[in-house]
Amino acid sequence: MMRVWAFVERDLRKFIRNPLAMLSTILLPIVYLLIIGNAFQGTLKHLPLAVVDQDHGPYAKRMSDRLRSIEAGPNTIRVIFEHDPAFAEAEVRSGKLKGALMIPPHFSRDILRGTGPQLGLLLDNTDAVAASALNQAVSGALAFLEVDSVPIRADLKAPRVLPLELYRRIDYDASIVPGAVIMSIFMGAMITGAFNLVMDRYLGVHESYLSTPLTRRDIVLGIMISGVLVTTLVGLFVLGAGIWLTGLPVAGGATSFLAVLLVIVLTALGLLGMMCIFLARVDHPRIVGLFGGFLNIILFFPSGAVYPIESFPPWLRSFTRYNPETYAVHALKSILFKGAQWDAIQGDLIFLGSFTLIMFLLSTGMYRRTL
Amino acid sequence: MTDAIVVKELVKRYGSLSAVDHISFDVASGECFGSLGPNGAGKTTLIRVLTGLIRKTEGEAFVSGYDVTKQADHVRRAIGVVSQAMTTDLDLSGWENLDIYARYYEVPLKARKARIALLLDLIGLASRAGDLVATYSGGMRRRLEIARGLIHRPKILFLDEPTIGLDPQSRRVVWELLQQFRREEQLTIFLTTHYMDEADLLCDRIAIIDNGKIIALDTPENHKKEIPGSDIVDVTLERDDTNEGIETIIAEMETLPFVHQVIRHSGGQESGPDVLNIYSDNGAQAIPVLMERLQARGMKILAMGLKQQTLEDVFIHYTGRSIRSEGGKKVSYLIGAGLPRRWGN
Ligand SMILES: Nc1ncnc2c1ncn2[C@@H]1O[C@H](COP(=O)(O)OP(=O)(O)OP(=O)(O)O)[C@@H](O)[C@H]1O
Ligand SMILES: [Mg+2]
């Protein structure tokens, strides 16, 4: 064990003397959190929609008012009034607007006469998400119009949905805090651990310790221990920052903290072990960079951190079953958002633990103990 | 007492190149054994095979009685290694480098501290021990690496060009250090070097290696005896591109009674002047005669000197060229030996 600790100490000392690496491990995931949290809000906001009123009747006015109140309320759209339909269409085509609503002449008259009133909605359907949101907003406004003109009682038999929220509401940016923590763990595992072995190999420094009694197990274990110490600290720091920045209320107390700590440690170990396998024979840092970017994408996005796994196509969903980050995200979300007990995250912990063990054994076997 | 190192028909091939080509030799316990050879001779490759850093292709090698491939663990505990490349950690202080290294060998705390203090003192770095190695000069770093190789009281110390990049004074410090540990701890030393004076001073026996083969193995004294005549007259002539004049004059000189042999080389430069080494029993007597002959032939003498023979001359004698004549790398102690890549295993 003295050998392992010596190796751990070497690694930690070198890390501490490289403050830039330490700082970026902490800062990057927080920036990620801020960008992702604000870029993909759960619902879309401020989509620019032109309204061209050629009717000027009471219903056209009411329609405009509805849209304007959507603009003020849920913020889905930003309404811009236009006179020239051709100009509005050109603006949609050029991408300045996401859509244009054409209220044709005689719209109000057609409603009153019941002779098939129609609205034209031009959508930039290359942006499918925005288009469907606009469609919904306009239909919603239109529905209001009809409810107003139709006796309310007639509608009573229609089934209604009463949403029942099981947990306290979590804002979208708060809901990706677990993702940011997982990402910080990934980045920590990337720049500590196996990366240091690659650097040693690149600089030729490994020649010095390969001629000592250090065994492969000593080396891999040492590198994983130093890596997990740094990575856990980074993960906790990012978690704290995430909670503070998003105002996420934390449930639990000491037990929750312990559970979170355990998840972070196991995730870090699993990822560190995985890197050790992939990088066991790499001798150039550039490969680590390329590889890290790639691995981050294939592990992070299908982990459920930013988008629900259930909506993935089946092939991707089956991949998530072997992705350690999926379990880490699930466990962290359960603890942080639902105040889950041990039995809810047991499966995650078992997966992460076994994953770590397998990775460690494989990487020990793969490490090349010659030059 | 068993031999510290036994090597039998050892071969290390990189593709079709035999970097070590059927080498055999023994090193006795307590001996200092040197291998001397030009760049690319295979010295580093030989050390790396013996220290378990790369695998041999054929043959056998035992270090401290253990097979270097099958019992690498035992070998590692018995040896210390100072590699050709600089391998101390720049982000650690001198003291930390030594301390961490000693713990790889599980040297207990107290012994470690005493040993580190002793070694730092001997290499003259005690006052800089707390500074990061990144702030050391190349020579300081090299001395630290030599101390590191001795940190765990190895039985056998391998040194690959230990004094490369050191100034004369530091070289002497290192030589004294090695001699002291030989005396006090019965250290066996295997070293490679380019420097003749170093091999001459430190080694009991010297293997001259060229192209992966040992071309001569003996004590420094016997090596020198190999050369006919005790003196060497060094003549530098203006370069003669026709080549004929000089070949005739060499043939003529070799017929002189006091001349044993004439060797022509280019003094280490590609298109430099011609240098003739004239081996003689009595150089002082030979000089005027040689001068007369050369001038009679219209040769332009740039310089002429008389010297006692050294191992350099031995090397030239065996290989017909100067040890530095391959040019290329001079004092690349920062990068040092090339790292094996694809051929590593
Ligand atoms: N990893 C490698 N792959 C291919 N060839 C190699 C490798 N390592 C060494 N060689 C070749 O083996 C030969 C011996 O190299 P080696 O480094 O042992 O020489 P050396 O005697 O130590 O030279 P120097 O004085 O320059 O250190 C050289 O021709 C070299 O090109
Ligand atoms: Mg060498």
Briefly, what is this?
The complex is a heterodimer of chains A (371) and B (345). Chain A has 16 helices and 4 strands.
Commentary on this structure:
The complex is a heterodimer of chains A (371) and B (345). Chain A is mainly alpha-helical and 371 residues long. Chain A has two domains: 119 residues, abc type-2 transporter like fold; 195 residues, no CATH class. Chain A contains 16 helices and four strands. Chain A has a four-stranded mixed beta sheet, sandwiched between helices. In chain A, helix 2 crosses helix 11, helix 11 crosses helix 12 and helix 12 packs parallel to helix 16. In chain B, the strands form three sheets. Chain B has a six-stranded mixed beta sheet with strand order 6-7-8-3-9-10, with helices on both faces. A four-stranded antiparallel beta sheet of chain B has the order 2-1-4-5, with helices on one face. Chain B has a four-stranded antiparallel beta sheet with strand order 12-13-11-14, with helices on both faces. Chain B contains eleven helices and 14 strands. Chain B is an alpha/beta fold. In chain B, strand 1 and strand 2 form a beta hairpin. The longest helix of chain B has 18 residues. The chains are: A mainly alpha (371), B alpha/beta (345). The interface between A and B is medium-sized, with 28 and 34 residues. Bound molecules: adenosine-5'-triphosphate and magnesium ion. The site of magnesium ion has 5 residues of chain B, from helix 1.
